[in-house]
Structures are given as structure tokens and as C-alpha cells.
Recover the amino acids of this structure.
């Protein structure tokens, strides 16, 4: 899926995810793809994040990025797409805390031609987004 066709397809999917995250509402729970038209509600919280993982071109290696929170450094492979412009996307690095995720103040921007695939994880609520 590498190359210009990859960029267009990923851009469309990531733009859908950004739009859904901004809406923060749910209706349906029947579909299970990255661009399903809902996020959901759990424990009386509107789900506001569709965490994803990225795989590089051409060898589909899982992308990881470093972060620092409260003086503690770590590496994560889970991200929240924040913006998409042309063939670039900016992601917030998410930190794993038990079986949930926490937002960090670390971001990165990547050329989507460098991304071979994405995997969407279960929608979640992340505070302070």
C-alpha cells in the first residue's frame, strides 16, 4: 500500500477519524472498521479517541515514538491523529496506563507516503484532550 495511492487512502481514513473525534458522540455500534461512523459511550463518558498504530513502508515495521511525562521517559506505539493536511498527519503520542491510554504533550508529524498501514484500536475516552 506504499506510495501515492497509499497517501490518498490513508488521508481519507484519517480525516474521517479526526472528524469523529471532534464530534464526540455515538449512535451505532454495529461496524468494526477504522472509518466506522461512530465512537461510542462508556461509563457515561463520550468516547473521544480512536487510538491507532502505524506501520512503516515498505517493511511494515511498527512505528514507535519517545515521550516524556512528569520527568518519566518512555516509548509508545499508540497514537491519536490530531490533524491531516495533504499527505502529512500530526499525531499525539499516547501513553499506556494499565489497560487504558493517557494523552501526552508529545506530537509528531509524518508523511503518509512513509506509512504502509494503520491499525485502529478500540475507541476510548481520554481526559484533557
Amino acid at each position: 500500500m506504499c506510495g501515492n495511492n497509499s497517501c490518498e487512502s490513508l488521508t481519507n481514513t484519517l480525516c474521517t477519524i479526526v472528524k469523529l473525534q471532534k464530534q464526540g458522540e455515538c449512535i451505532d455500534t454495529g461496524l468494526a472498521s477504522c472509518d466506522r461512523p461512530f465512537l461510542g459511550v462508556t461509563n457515561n463518558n463520550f468516547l473521544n479517541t480512536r487510538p491507532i498504530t502505524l506501520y512503516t513502508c515498505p517493511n511494515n515495521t511498527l512505528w514507535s515514538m519517545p515521550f516524556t511525562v512528569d520527568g518519566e521517559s518512555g516509548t509508545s506505539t499508540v497514537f491519536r491523529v490530531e490533524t491531516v493536511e495533504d499527505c502529512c498527519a500530526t499525531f499525539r503520542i499516547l501513553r499506556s496506563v494499565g489497560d487504558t491510554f493517557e494523552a501526552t504533550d508529545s506530537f509528531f508529524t509524518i508523511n503518509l507516503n512513509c506509512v504502509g498501514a494503520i491499525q485502529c484500536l478500540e475507541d476510548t475516552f481520554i481526559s484533557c484532550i
